[in-house]
């Protein structure tokens, strides 16, 4: 049963406190890897696995870890999950593992992961901590996939290119071509395009939040104004 606390955690992870759009954490892999949808999805799923595993583990042992050495222990726990996901990718999605390269082991240094372990998992029970890790991961993955899709469509004219690297040979038919070109639009493919794309996504989110805040303010003011009008009559 989802209670109000769980709803808040879900909303924070996906929107209100999104690690990429609000906290602005983990931007190095976000900007470097999100040149295609599949790359973004793969890194996002790997990060989600590490976030969920580390959050849950930290929550279980939080009362047994001395405060003075909690950060090194958190890092070692995160590193164990990163090693786990790296070995799985190396075994089952080797080509994609090579494509993502150094950014798989660099998940250990992702500030979003150590930040959630310190700020949330070390202070809450297992279920909320696990849910927080999953939702923060999904929020990060959503931004990676959206940015990757935009950059891939603009830069290469395709979508879901390289899907077979993640899902198997059958997924090669999933690739969609929007236009054919002899050369790619490098600005979209390279990190400068990622900076611009991320800025646009942040601006869109801020615009939506501002519009919602204005609507909420107007809805609260309307009953007050109606009550004042009736009192004058």
Automatic annotation (TrEMBL):
The chain crosses the membrane at residues 20-52, 73-92, 98-117, 185-204. Its EC number is 7.-.-.-. It comes from the Bacteria. GO terms for cellular component: endomembrane system; plasma membrane. One of its GO terms (biological process) is electron transport chain. Its main location: membrane. Keywords: Cell inner membrane, Cell membrane, Electron transport, Membrane, Translocase, Transmembrane, Transmembrane helix, Transport. This is Ion-translocating oxidoreductase complex subunit E.
